[in-house]
Write a structure and sequence with these properties.
Elements lengths: L1 E8 L4 E3 L5 E5 L2 E7 L3 E8 L11 E3 L3 E5 L2 E5 L6 E3 L3 E5 L1
Antiparallel strand pairs: 1-5, 1-8, 2-6, 3-4, 4-5, 7-10, 8-9
Length: 93
């Protein structure tokens, strides 16, 4: 697929280490990463069929029980092609 957007929502206790938006290359795939207040956005000009794992460093700001948001992925030119992850709870002690 071409022109794909993935949005990863973060729990309120998590903050990204890298706050600067930039073009990156990881696992044979080039993408633009944009960090926002509550999410990190990934933009792909071309995404081949397959399984990908995206990881980025976060740090914990305070303890408690938090709801982590879902991650959504969608083709920007064909929005009918979309999917999302399940939400999870995070407990920080």
């Amino acid at each position: 697929m071409e022109y794909v957007h993935m949005k990863d929502m973060r729990a309120s206790a998590l903050e990204p280490v890298n706050v600067l938006s930039s073009y990156k290359y990881q696992g044979g795939l080039g993408y633009y990463e944009s960090t926002k207040d509550a999410s990190t956005n990934f933009f792909f000009s071309y995404l081949r069929k397959g399984t990908y794992v995206f990881e980025y460093p976060l740090f914990v700001t305070h303890t408690g029980n938090f709801s982590n948001g879902v991650t959504t992925i969608q083709c920007m030119y064909a929005p009918e092609f979309t999917s999302h992850s399940e939400g999870v709870r995070i407990t920080v002690e």
